[in-house]
Each structure stands twice: as C-alpha cells, then as structure tokens.
Design brief:
By secondary structure, this protein is an alpha/beta fold. It has helices spanning 3-16, 26-34, 57-60, 81-93, 137-140, 184-192, 198-205, 209-216, 252-255, 314-323, 325-342, 345-364, and strands at 42-45, 50-51, 62-64, 69-71, 101-104, 119-121, 124-125, 131-133, 162-169, 174-175, 182-183, 223-227, 258-263, 282-286, 290-291, 305-307.
Length: 366
C-alpha cells in the first residue's frame, strides 16, 4: 500500500467513525426525525435514485431527467441552504451506485452524539457514535476558496512576516453561562429587544470562544483579532459591547502576511482550519469539540499548536514560537505537505472510494 493509499484509508476509517446498533427500522427513523430541528433529517434511496418521503423531501427537491440531476426547485420560497446541501450530497454519492438508503443531517453544529443508526453529517462532536462525516461542498469542495489549494501565491517567507497572531471573522458560536447553552446570535437579538440586561448579555458573551479571544487580546500588540460585521450583521457593529472589536475585512493575503493564525470555533469548527495548514504560517488551534472529515490528517504538536479553550496559554505559546523558528518551520512543512495531498481531486476520489468500500463492509453487511 502506498503512502497516498494509507492516507486515504485513514480518512475512510475516520469518516465512518464508531458504528453501533442494528439497521434502522421505522421506529428508529421516527425517533431521529423528531429529535432534530427543522425537519432536517433527509433520506435518499440510492437504489431507487430518489429521496424518501421523510420530512417531505421528495417534494422539496426537483429532478431533471435530461441531466439526471436533483436540485433546488426554481420557485422555492424561503431559505434554500439545507435544500442545496442535500442536493449536493445526492450528486456526490451518485458515482458510487447502490449503497442503500443514506440518511443525512447536513446542518451546522449537529450536537446529537448518539443517533440510533448511521447518519451522514459534515460535522460531528468528538467521540460521537453513528455520525458519519461527509464533505460539505460549499466549503470542502476541491477548488473552494475555503479549502486547501486555494491560497494566492505568497510573497514573504515565514521569517519575514509580521510577528503576531491574526484572526478575522463574524461573531458566531454558543455561550454556556451557568450551563445555559445559547446561540450568540439569538442572545444579541434578546439584548437588542430588551429581554436581557447588558450585564447578563456580557456574562454570556464572555463564554463565547470568539468573543472571549478577541476581547482578551484587544490591547495586545502581539495579536490582531477582530469581528467583521457586514451585510445583514452590520447593525451589530453599533452594539456597545461589540463595537470596540469590529475591524475591516481582510483579504487572504492579509491573513498570511502574519506568522501566526488561529483557528477559533464558530457554531462548530473553524473555517480557517480548512485552508491555513497549506500556508507558510504556523497555525494555533483552539481545542474545540467538533470535527470534520479531514481533521484526522493533522496532529497537534506535529502540524499545529493546540491552545487551551480559555486561551490562557496563547501568549506563552507565541513567545515559544518566536524563540523556536526551526521547530515552527518543521510543523509548517509537514502541514503543507498534507494540505497539498488533500487539494488533489484524484485523492478525494480515492478517499471517497475507500470510504464506501468500508461503509459497505461495516454498515450495509450488518
């Protein structure tokens, strides 16, 4: 087995993860349907080549027989994101023929760790059971601007870049103040509607990783981090507890003109982690609880530097990196090599094939 084949096999095993239980029956499917938000559970019969009636998906997507293509109906009103993701999933698995009925929940931040049968997701909690990882085309497709291989040509080598940790992004994620897990976007709405006080709002914000990091290092010259509030979120730039941390948008070359980038969790994983290991930068990564299909390839200490969830060690690790350039270079080189492999269309085909070979053995043959 070649190195490339071994890497593909490793990814296949990781994607499938821990599989447990019997094949789904009607009771198990109904249980999973009810416990998920917004009718998100989707089912596609690869033998019949059409969605099942579950949650009305057979009528929520349209089929063009001339192109053999399922897509979002042209006259669909309302949000189309979930429809697009399910249509993309159908297109992705079509080359693999009859692999039974595929169940999927392609939402962001799927927090359920124990579905009763295998369900395809693009993200999962660590140590989850029956949560099968599949790439999300919008951010994981080969050629996507958020995936490996998309970087513009860099001009400065690592040693000549700015010695600082750089981050830009939106205010996303969850608070867990006093055990109350809440989406930060909904918290903002509650505050603006006068439903919670500013003190309580601040207490919640301080537990949101992105806000905690940005506010913690706002006055430190070794860190350049801030929120980008544009479009429908532009009004948030006027909120008193957020306004001091708003920064202009940054181009990709602005990111990689710094020695260090940091991957911070949003609603689930960090988008930065999908491209930054391919850059001539050292990546710091928050130790967050979610993972996606390629996470198995990158190892803490070998490809990136893991930071504590409370960020208490960030500056110490910064100083270590500044004093250990050769070791930083080794990590960067190793991460770059892996990123170059993941950016190859042929590798993706190989990894997908290895995955379904394993899926047939461990899931369909039960």
């Amino acid at each position: 087995m070649t190195d490339i084949e071994q890497i593909a096999e490793r990814e296949a095993v990781f994607r499938l993860g821990h599989i447990s239980g019997a094949p789904p029956d009607a009771e198990a499917v109904e249980f999973e349907r009810k416990r998920r938000l917004g009718n998100s559970l989707f089912a596609y019969d690869t033998a019949a080549r059409c969605p099942l009636k579950l949650n009305g998906w057979l009528k929520r997507l349209s089929y063009d027989p001339t192109k053999d293509l399922w897509s979002v109906p042209a006259d669909l009103k309302g949000p189309v994101l979930r429809h697009t993701r399910n249509a993309d999933l159908i297109g992705d698995i079509k080359p693999f023929g009859n692999v039974g009925v595929i169940y999927a929940d392609m939402r962001d931040s799927v927090s359920i760790k124990d579905p009763r049968f295998p369900i395809f997701q693009y993200n999962r909690r660590k140590n989850a059971v029956n949560c099968v990882l599949w790439p999300l085309r919008r951010v994981h497709d080969i050629g996507s601007g958020n995936f490996f291989g998309s970087l513009p040509r860099e001009t400065n080598p690592f040693e000549r870049k700015r010695a600082r940790i750089f981050w830009r992004g939106n205010l996303a994620g969850f608070s867990n103040f006093e055990g109350d897990v809440r989406n930060v976007r909904l918290l903002v709405d509650s505050f603006l509607d006068g439903e919670i006080s500013e003190d309580l709002f601040k207490a919640h914000l301080d537990t949101v990783p992105r806000y905690r990091f940005v506010s913690m290092f706002a006055d430190d010259p070794r860190v350049d981090a801030g929120f980008v509030m544009s479009g429908r979120h532009s009004h948030l730039a006027k909120v008193r507890l957020i306004a001091p941390y708003v920064r202009p948008p940054a181009e990709r070359l602005d990111y990689v003109d710094n020695k260090y980038l940091i991957a911070l969790s949003g609603t689930d994983v960090s988008t930065v982690f999908g491209w930054a290991p391919g850059a001539d930068v050292l990546l710091f990564k928050e130790d967050y609880d979610y993972e996606v299909f390629f996470d198995c390839h990158f190892q803490e200490g070998k490809d990136y530097v893991k930071v504590r969830p409370d960020f208490s060690d960030v500056l110490e690790l910064f100083e270590w990196a500044e004093s250990n350039v050769a070791e930083c270079r080794e990590k960067i080189a190793h991460a770059n090599a892996l990123s170059a492999i993941l950016a190859q269309p042929e590798f993706r085909k190989r990894a997908n094939t290895a995955f379904f070979d394993l899926y047939k053995t461990r899931v369909l043959s039960r």
